[in-house]
Amino acid sequence: MDRMIYNSMAGAKAAMQRQEVLAHNLANVTTTGFRAELQAFRAVPVRGDGASTRVYALETTIGYDDKAGPLQTTARNLDVAVKGKSWLSVQGLDGTEAYTRAGALDVNAEGLLVTRGGLPVLGDGGPITIPPNSEIQIGEDGTVSAKGATGRPANVGRLKLVTPEERMTRGEDGLFRTADPLPADPNARLEAGVLEGSNVSAVETMVSMISAARQFEQQMKLLNIAQTQGQVSAKLLSPT
User: Fold this and answer.
1) Taking 90 as the threshold, does the pLDDT of residue 19 lie above it?
2) What is the mean pLDDT of residues 103-130?
3) Taking the complete model, does pTM exceed 0.90, yes or no?
4) CA distance 100 to 165
5) Strands 71-73, 55-60: pairing kind
6) Helix (H), strand (E), coil (C) string for the chain
């Protein structure tokens, strides 16, 4: 009887966790450069005398879906979409180097090139400063040029584009990081005037959420059956 309870309880918990991940992905279906979170589970035996046949389903983090999202043309000079497996380098709120595919850039009041969320975009030598009243152009290799009143473009920096060889870790701020800062990849390329959308499929995610909800319902039914059978067994074994 308790084996059914353990299995049903673990299955219900796994279904709830899957729903949370799917809901998070669905909420970011329109977020620029978002990478869908992936989830898997593994069976872990319960240790202890008489419990060798009982198992828990524990979450195994397998990271994120690294396929590219759809591209949307904006014709805005400060919108960029990184090609292939490369990433933009930014400075997180904690001061560490982090990586993102969200290429909607702006210039803040201090003249720094920043993301839409206000994080400084890193160049080969640190944050990139833009001269006042300049028209900005970003080249395919990440070179940032500013054209001022003289009409002559000047090179003010180059976006630090990286291409990780191993999967990165997503932080609570939505940025990705590695144990050590990655070197700039001179072969990385981007496209200006374009933004990369989220790689979450709304239809597939909705179908998966319905499936997870059905799985949760089935596990709860099994728990109810186990409870009913336990009550019947207790009555049969109780002294009359």
Assistant:
1) no
2) 94
3) no
4) 15
5) unpaired
6) CHHHHHHHHHHHHHHHHHHHHHHHHHHCCCCCCCCCECCEEEEEECCCCCCCCCEEEEEECCCECCCCCCEEECCCCCEEEECCCCEEEEECCCCCEEEECCCEEEECCCCEEEECCCCEEEECCEECECCCCCEEEECCCCEEEEECCCCCEEEEEEECEECCCCCCEECCCCCEECCCCCCCCCCCCEEECEEECCCCCHHHHHHHHHHHHHHHHHHHHHHHHHHHHHHHHHHHHCCC
Give the per-residue pLDDT at 151.
Answer: 77
Please give the backbone phi and psi of residue 23, each rounded to the nearest 5 degrees, phi first: -65, -40
Closest CA to 92 of 128, 122, 65, 112: 122
Alpha-carbon distance of 65 to 127, in angstroms, equals: 29
Amino acid of residue 25: N
Q: Which residues contact 78 (CB under 8 A, 6 or more apart)?
A: 104, 105, 106, 107, 136, 138
Higher pLDDT, 87 or 19: 87
d(CA 7, CA 219) in angstroms, rounded, equals 8
Q: How many CA atoms lie within 13 A of 59 on its CB side?
A: 16
Cα-atom radius of gyration of the chain, to the nearest Å? 25
Tokens of 86: 């490369």
First-to-last CA distance in the chain? 23
